[in-house]
User: Fold this.
Amino acid sequence: MKESIDLKSQLRQHGHKLTTQRAEVWEVLKGAPGHLTAEQVAADTASGVNLASVYRALGLFTDIGIARESRLGNDDAARWEVAHPDDEFHIVCRSCGRVEHHGGDLVQQIRTHLSNSHGFEAATVELAVSGECSRCSDPSAA
Amino acid sequence: MKESIDLKSQLRQHGHKLTTQRAEVWEVLKGAPGHLTAEQVAADTASGVNLASVYRALGLFTDIGIARESRLGNDDAARWEVAHPDDEFHIVCRSCGRVEHHGGDLVQQIRTHLSNSHGFEAATVELAVSGECSRCSDPSAA
DNA sequence: ATGCGTATTGCGAATCGTTCGCAATTAACC
DNA sequence: GGTTAATTGCGAACGATTCGCAATACGCAT
Assistant:
């Protein structure tokens, strides 16, 4: 079977080593439900990878394109997640605090619109929406 | 003639005083081309308002809804601007570094899409796009 | 398997943006 | 003009992130 992303080869491709710490950080990131702060990642690593090293690993993953960093709404700590193949965006429910990912073509539509109407070629599209998720605005949907 | 926003009455409405510092911060914000960091605002005030006070003023303006805070892409400092009546979004050119505002119905489309397809009622929509603006991707447009 | 050379780690100190505590000041109302 | 509570300015405190550097571990060749 094929793992979504082969960390070792990705690192090698960019001239970096596969270390146990990087592997652990990657595992945590892959296994996490949503976005994690560096601190959360550090706490979840099997051997308690040093926070500074976690930052370095996450920064590296982001640089080589296998992770994505984002700074949601009001929060002041950055969060990371595995880079999904396609654009996606976050919606933050301000009632329950949940952060959900949304894929779909919305971001693609945004790109198209910007390109057509404004001649702007979007490299990254970061969309953070806060509001009431269906679960919170309509309790019957719970 | 009618000023876009009457600072004094806005403050009063929410039980706050109009101080010279707040007025200066407001002037800077209104007169600024784009988003400013707190530090930039402080530097631009006529009498050199203290940075902490600038933060307090900006926070207050944001709370009462007459300013808007945002944290663009890679930058790690928050920026503020006068709250425009409608949703808008920022596009950051990674070549020239310019930050442009865009109004239009794009954000409204996003709201509609989220509401219709996901039952999510968006309160705030923050969209930050980075890429190449037309000026940079096509030098002839300069 | 072993050793080498370099990338990487861990630690603590440094940095940056932002907030806090508190004494001195000042706006709003009489 | 006087009273009083809100606000300012300052410097210290804070949390997130980065940096410097000695110790360590990976990848490669042997």
About this structure: The interface with chain A takes residues 71, 73, 91, 93-94, 102, 104, 106, 109-110, 113-114, 117-134, 137-138, 141 of chain B (CB under 8 Å). Strands of chain B lie at 36-37, 67-70, 79-82, 89-93, 99-102, 121-132. The helical segments of chain B are 7-13, 20-31, 38-44, 51-63, 106-118, 134-137.
